[in-house]
Every structure is written in structure tokens, then in C-alpha cells.
Design goal:
- There is one protein chain.
- By secondary structure, the chain is α/β, with parallel strands linked by helices.
- It folds into two domains: 184 residues, Medium-chain alcohol dehydrogenases, catalytic domain (Quinone Oxidoreductase, Chain A, domain 1); 135 residues, NAD(P)-binding Rossmann-like Domain (Rossmann fold).
- It is 26% helix and 27% strand.
- The strands form four sheets. Strands 3, 4, 5, 8, 9, 16 and 17 form a seven-stranded mixed beta sheet that branches. Strands 12-11-10-13-14-15 form a six-stranded parallel beta sheet, sandwiched between helices. A two-stranded antiparallel sheet has the order 1-2.
- Helix 4 crosses helix 10.
- It is globular and about 65 Å long.
Length: 359
């Protein structure tokens, strides 16, 4: 390590002095700004963004469904190329490496020292500010990020590599559940994040049951490895789960749809010692009513999952880097950064999968 100046790209023209940033000035209102290209500070790298996937956070902010502070620079599912390396970065990264951008940590706080770094204050480090605009910063040509928060993705397609972050969340949920091989796990909802959970659970050997009301999404779930499908528009998911489990109910359920009815269904289909994961946020939020005696008598658990620890991101990056999973069926379309508004509009259409923006 040294205090040497940042290592720049392969040639002087590879990192321009200015870059574009796409901001949400308000709901349904996109503005582009030209700002100085940032230089990586000590311990940081500069990433040339090659692909960024639109997540539900950006969708809800753009639509006005979820309150946020504007102007907002969305985009946190990011993959790109290291364009410059700041001083005092640990060895292992080189200019030109293709990486996914993910969680960082301080390595010293209580949460880091106990292997729970998702709760570290630096978990979301790297969120830039350009004047009054703030956010994760993926809707731009470049961004700086802590070097310990970028993960190599090898020769994986760059659009697929941008899905490392959402996959890491599903990896985190499956690691918390820790299903034994063949354990029954129900996934409620077969949107992108529900399907990510299918992928992660199958890597752990679970028997995955998917409940969904859309026939197309059910077909996608089957193609991505689901063992059993429940068309919730035609049959009672709770009764069907009990039929599939010899009357026991499911030992684990992941609510990948953030609605009150889904949460109530999940509680009702739990077996003895059942575990329920609240994976999706709900806007508007519906209260979840628990009967304490039932939870006590049947030794059930309700677990919240919002993001992953660094080990989850690392595992997700390896699954993608070494082509152990195929997430390409989850990519619906690609738009250039100049068409950010159109990309966000497309992502809001019912039944859509991941929309990728490429600067």
C-alpha cells in the first residue's frame, strides 16, 4: 500500500474529465446532468459502468409509490470495468477487471467482527452526491466505490453480472433459512426476486414450491428449477401446500411479494417449527398480525431480509463468474442511458422482468 496517485486507465483518454448522470428530478421526471468525473479516494476504485439493472426501489421512486428525496440518482445493481484504482487499495484488483458493485464494510465494528457486516455503517458506502443529487449512483457513466465492495465476475455477460446484487439478497435469505437437502420451501410470488430465490434455494438442494397468479411467471419458475407450481388464481395456496406436504404445511416460506394477503397466507401454511422470511417490502405497508401463543407453541420464526452480508455477495459473484447459474431468462430488455425514462416506464409494466440500462 502507498499514497501514490490513482492508477488511471490504459490510456489518457480512457477516463474523460466529465460524465453524464441521469437523475430523477421528481416522480416520472428524468433529467441529465454533466458533472466532473470523480477520482477515486484512498481505498476506492473508479468503475466505468457497463450495465445497471432497474430494481423495485427505483421503480417505486420513479412511480411515486415510495417516498424518496429528489433529485435522486438510482441504480444499485451495477456491473462495470475498473477504470482507475485509488491509493491504499489492497492488491488483487487491476484496471480492466470486470466487476459487480456491492456491499462494503469497515472490518472493525461489532457487526463485522461477529460476521454480520450487513449491519455495518459502511454497508452502503459508495453512494455519491453530485450537487444536490444523491443515490447509489448507477445511472451514470462512472462511479467511485470502496475497493472491498467490488467483486470480480470474470467473463460473465455484463448484463447478467449486473444481477449479482439481487442474487446476493436471495443467497442471503437461503443462507439464513439453511434448508436441508429436499426440505420443503414455498416461494410466494414469481417476479424477478421470487425467481432469484428459486435459483438460490435449488443450489442448496431444497424442494421448491412456487405460488403465483400469473401463468407466464409460473412457467418461468418451472424453467428455472421450481419443483411444484401452485396457480393461486385457481386454487387455495394454503390447502395445496398442505396437500403437497402430507398435511404438515411448509417448513419454510419466502414472501417475495410484499402484500398483506401474501404474509397472511405464509403464516397459515407454516408447519411445526416453520420459518417465514419477509423478503419484499410493502408499499403501502400492511400490518402483520401474529398470534404469540401459536408462534410459541409451534416454535415458528418470522425473519426479515433486506440485503446480504459480504459473503453472500461473494458467493453470488462466484455463481455468476463461474456460470453455475443462468440468470439470462430474467433479462427482458436493454436501453441506453439516454433512454432512462423509457427504461423506467418499461420496468413498471405488469409482468416485466429486469430492464438493463447501459451507459
Amino acid at each position: 500500500m502507498s499514497d501514490a496517485p490513482p492508477q488511471q486507465g490504459r490510456d489518457a483518454a480512457s477516463v474523460p474529465k466529465e460524465m453524464r448522470v441521469g437523475t430523477m428530478a421528481a416522480a416520472h421526471q428524468i433529467e441529465f446532468r454533466t458533472v466532473p468525473t470523480p477520482e477515486p479516494a484512498s481505498g476506492d476504485v473508479l468503475v466505468r459502468i457497463r450495465a445497471v439493472a432497474i430494481c423495485t426501489w427505483e421503480q417505486r421512486t420513479y412511480s411515486g409509490q415510495q417516498p424518496n428525496t429528489f433529485p435522486f440518482i438510482g441504480g444499485h445493481e451495477i456491473a462495470g470495468e475498473i477504470a482507475a484504482i485509488g491509493p491504499n487499495c489492497a492488491p488483487g484488483l487491476e484496471i480492466g477487471d470486470l466487476v459487480a458493485v456491492g456491499s462494503a464494510s469497515c472490518g472493525r465494528c461489532h457487526w463485522c467482527m461477529t460476521g454480520q457486516d450487513r449491519a455495518c455503517a459502511r454497508h452502503y458506502a459508495g453512494a455519491p452526491r453530485y450537487g444536490d443529487a444523491w443515490g447509489p449512483g448507477g445511472f451514470a457513466d462512472f462511479k467511485t466505490h470502496p475497493a472491498d465492495g467490488v467483486y470480480k465476475v470474470g467473463d460473465a455477460p455484463i448484463d447478467v453480472a449486473s444481477l449479482t446484487e439481487p442474487l446476493s439478497c436471495a443467497v442471503h435469505a437461503s443462507r439464513i433459512l439453511n434448508p436441508y437437502v429436499s426440505e420443503d420451501v414455498v416461494v410466494l410470488g414469481a417476479g424477478v426476486m421470487g425467481l432469484m430465490n428459486v435459483v438460490a434455494l435449488k443450489r442448496r438442494g431444497a424442494r421448491v414450491i412456487v405460488s403465483e397468479i400469473d401463468a407466464g411467471r409460473l412457467a418461468k419458475a418451472k424453467a428455472m428449477g421450481a419443483d411444484e407450481l401452485i396457480d393461486a388464481s385457481k386454487e387455495d395456496p394454503i390447502a395445496r401446500v398442505k396437500d403437497l406436504t402430507e398435511g404438515r404445511g411448509t417448513e419454510a416460506v419466502i414472501c417475495a411479494f410484499g402484500g398483506g394477503s401474501a404474509n397472511e397466507q405464509a403464516l397459515a401454511m407454516l408447519s411445526e417449527k416453520g420459518r417465514m422470511v419477509l423478503f419484499a417490502g410493502a408499499y403501502p405497508e400492511a400490518p402483520l398480525t401474529l398470534a404469540p401463543n401459536k408462534m410459541h407453541d409451534h416454535e415458528r420464526q418470522v425473519i426479515g431480509v433486506v440485503s446480504g452480508d459480504k459473503q453472500d455477495f461473494y458467493i453470488a459473484s462466484r455463481l455468476i463468474r463461474y456460470h453455475q447459474v443462468d440468470l439470462s431468462p430474467l433479462i427482458q430488455a436493454t436501453y441506453p442511458l439516454t433512454q432512462l425514462g423509457e427504461a423506467l416506464d418499461a420496468s413498471l409494466k405488469p409482468g416485466s422482468y429486469r430492464i438493463i440500462v447501459e451507459p
